[in-house]
Amino acid sequence: MARIIKIGVVQHSFNEDTDFNRARNLTAIENLAAEGAELIVLSELHDSLYFCQTENVDNFDYAQVLPGDYTEFYGEAAAANNVVLVTSTFERRAPGLYHNTAIVFDKDGSIAGKYRKMHIPDDPGFYEKFYFTPGDLGFEPIETSVGRLGVLVCWDQWYPEAARLMAMRGADLLIYPTAIGWNPDDDEEEKVRQREAWITVQRGHAVANGLPVVSVNRCGFEEDPSGQTSGIDFWGSSFVAGPQGELLFMAPENTPVEEIVAVDLERVENVRQWWPFFRDRRIECYGDLRKRFLL
To answer: Average pLDDT for residues 113-122, to the nearest whole number?
Structure first.
């Protein structure tokens, strides 16, 4: 018997006005809930511009104390619209200690759980190590009224180990709030390679674990405030894949999108019966995976 969940995908661009971004997020939540969404996923750091293009201590002002104004706003949004809501924020945990944190709200507005981003990039235009301490909550699915959500964040999506551990702990699906894009100076062939690699690796997580994957990216151009780079073109392309990696939905590159995608969670059981990867794993042989390298 099918167990269908209707997932709302919110692919937006953002500006420097937090109140404006929150208001537009709320409108999207209301619209998708009115159309029947039960679970709504926002992109990474959706209340602001992607401030990690530069190392600037003033950007710590974006950080949120949790619980606080942030959790009140999005908790009320979840409760008023009777949806499970996956959000992403810059968490101020203590003086000098900050995380990139996903907060999941259940349908009653309560905090179902949180996940602190584990893999932190440090590349030109993505200076996240300046802002974020690696997470310390592990890879634990978050129990909600619509299922167990394996929530990870952006750079985590390149690591099969993270997806596998979420699956091994009983996640019903994998969710990746994301902020990723091109350097505008890259040629078109390089842009295609990067975007296709991003899609392919996450579809691979779906196949290897027999789980649906929901990846929600921002879109639009954001300039580098320092002028040291040409900024970032966030490539959108948010997508939902089924447990065999099949694409159920793919958003366009440069257009804001609000879409509902129906996912059959019962197929997880079916696919794992057909392709029993968990049965055939040679777990006694994998100890070396805990090492940095083997040469």
So the answer is: 98
For residue 8, CA distances in Å to 25, 27, 41, 240 come to: 12, 13, 6, 10
In this structure, the strands spanning 84-94 and 39-41 are parallel
Structural tokens at position 86: 């996956």
Rounded distance, CA 128 to CA 125, Å? 9
Q: Which one-letter amino acid corresponds to residue 207?
A: V
Residue 44 among the catalytic residues: yes
- Cα separation, 258 vs 104, whole angstroms: 19
Q: Note if 191 is an active site residue.
A: no
Q: What distance lies between CA 135 and its chain's CA centroid?
A: 15
Whether the model clears a pTM of 0.85, i.e. scores above it, the answer is yes
Rounded to 5 degrees, φ, ψ at 68 are: 180, -150
Euclidean distance between the first and final Cα of the chain, in Å? 49
What is the tens place of the pLDDT at every residue in 230-260?
999 999 999 999 999 999 999 999 899 999 9
Cα distances (Å, whole numbers) of residue 179 to 12, 39, 156, 157, 170: 11, 20, 12, 11, 26
Which of 52, 91, 114, 154 is flagged as catalytic?
Answer: 154
Tell me whether residue 114 is one of the annotated catalytic residues. no
State the residue for tokens 């900024």: 231
Q: What is the pLDDT of residues 1-23, one digit of tens each?
A: 469 999 999 999 999 999 999 99
DSSP 182-233: E-TTS-HHHHHHHHHHHHHHHHHHHHHHT--EEEEE-EEEE--TTSSS--EE
CB neighbours (10 Å) of residue 188?
8
Q: Select which of 38, 52, 117, 219 is catalytic.
A: 117
239 φ/ψ angles, rounded to the nearest 5 degrees: -150, 165
Neighbours of 82 (CB within 10 A): 13
Helix (H) or strand (E) holding 112: strand 111-116
